[in-house]
Each structure stands twice: as C-alpha cells, then as structure tokens.
C-alpha cells in the first residue's frame, strides 16, 4: 500500500483544502468592510449601480467575495438587488424617514429601558459597565474607518438594554432596523459622538440605580436629542 502523503490528513482531506476556508472567510470579510466603507463614506454614491466585475477589478479580488459582500450589504439595506440590473446602493434617509425611525425607537426603547432597570441583575449591570467603558472618547475623524468602532458600540449598548428588558420580539425588531448604521451614514462629527457618550453615561447610571422612571426619562432624553442632532445636520447639508 502506498504511504499517505505528508500533506494529507487521516480523513483524506488535503492540508491546503483545510486552510482554504479560513482564508476565504477572511477575504470575504475584508471585501465586505471595504465596500461598506465606500458606501458609508459616499465614495459609492446613493443609488449608484455596483457592478460585480468592476468592483472585483477595483479591489483586486475575484467576483466571488464581492458577490458575498453585496449579499451581506443587502441584508443591512445598504444595497438592493434589482431584477436584470444587479446591485445598487440604497438612498439616504430623508427628513421624514429620520423622524419615523426615531418615533419607532422611542416606542420600543423608552419602555424597554424602564423594564430593564426593574429587572437588572448584578451580572447584567457589569455588562452595561463593560460596554460603557469599551469606548472612552468619540473619534474626531469623519471617515467610517475611524468611527466604525464607535457605531458598533452605540448599537451594542442599545441592543444590550433591550436584551436585558427581555422582550425578544422588540430586540429582533431593533436589530432589523439597522438604525445606527443608516443614521451614521448621513453624517458624523466628533461633537455628535461626544454628546452621545455623555448621554450614554447618564442612561447607564439610571439603569444601575434600578429606577424604571429615571431609566425611561434618560432614554427618552437621549433619543430625542440624538434625533434633533441628526435633523440639524441633515438640514445643514441640505
């Protein structure tokens, strides 16, 4: 019987085959992040067609990871696939959609904050503290690559509060909104982030006090002020 090759494992799978999957996953993630940055930074404009072949040449990769990345962007509603036309970027939110989004968030998140405060455990309190301390200051740069970690933190904190509140349907609805992503796509500046961090501190303090009324007030104040900041920036751009 012939000896098994040193490059082959006992189940007959080549070492190169085993290593291929992680490399492909990393490549797909990198392409996804690059395309997402292009969209968030406006380098691919709202409503612009995204040709898979053109993008693969631009990013110097094969069409496969580009196609996978576009499917992920479609799930976040940053891209849309049109019959016979391929992918285009979605349009930016307009003023009416901004108001509608925050109206929905106020309906979902204000009572959830109160409920979370009333049922908060010590372990959950520690999770809130850890998330709050994960970002110490808001980045000043306006490129998505610079403030992406801040956006992720913002979304995680709000989702954590909803998870603590214990209403799974509300949490799923919040996740499907991708609200933070689309709001930050409109614009970002350091002052916006600093205000949000301060309001997050007050919100977490109210939750840690286990006072439902204070937690609801803090969430309402935060969302209302955030809405007004976004609208003011939108009007300035207009």
UniProtKB/TrEMBL annotation:
InterPro entries: GntR_C, TF_FadR/GntR_C, Tscrpt_reg_HTH_GntR, WH-like_DNA-bd_sf, WH_DNA-bd_sf. The keyword Oxidoreductase does not apply. GO terms for molecular function: DNA binding. SMART domains: FCD (SM00895), HTH_GNTR (SM00345). Pfam families: FCD, GntR. The keyword NADP does not apply. Residues 25-92 form the HTH gntR-type domain. Gene3D superfamilies: GntR ligand-binding domain-like, Winged helix-like DNA-binding domain superfamily/Winged helix DNA-binding domain. Keywords: DNA-binding, Transcription, Transcription regulation. PANTHER family: GLUCONATE OPERON TRANSCRIPTIONAL REPRESSOR, TRANSCRIPTIONAL REGULATOR, GNTR FAMILY. This is DNA-binding GntR family transcriptional regulator.
């Amino acid at each position: 019987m012939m000896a098994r090759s040193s490059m082959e494992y006992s189940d007959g799978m080549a070492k190169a085959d085993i290593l291929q999957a992680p490399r492909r996953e990393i490549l797909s993630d990198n392409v996804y992040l690059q395309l997402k940055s292009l969209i968030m930074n406006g380098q691919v404009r709202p409503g612009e067609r995204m040709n898979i072949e053109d993008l693969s040449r631009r990013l110097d990769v094969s069409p496969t990871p580009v196609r996978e990345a576009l499917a992920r962007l479609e799930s976040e509603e940053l891209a849309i696939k049109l019959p016979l036309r391929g992918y285009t970027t979605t349009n930016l939110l307009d003023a009416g959609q901004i108001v509608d989004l925050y109206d929905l968030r106020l309906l979902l998140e204000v009572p959830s904050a109160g409920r979370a405060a009333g049922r908060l455990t010590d372990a959950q309190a520690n999770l809130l503290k850890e998330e709050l301390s994960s970002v110490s200051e808001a980045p000043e740069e306006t490129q998505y690559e610079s403030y992406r970690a801040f956006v992720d933190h913002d979304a995680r904190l709000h989702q954590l509060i909803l998870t603590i509140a214990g209403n799974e349907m509300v949490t799923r609805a919040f996740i499907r909104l991708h609200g933070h992503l689309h709001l930050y796509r409109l614009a970002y500046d350091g002052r916006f982030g600093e205000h949000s961090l301060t309001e997050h501190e007050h919100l977490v303090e109210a939750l840690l006090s286990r006072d439902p009324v204070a937690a609801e007030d803090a969430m309402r104040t935060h969302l209302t002020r955030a809405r007004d900041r976004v609208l003011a920036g939108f009007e300035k751009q207009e």
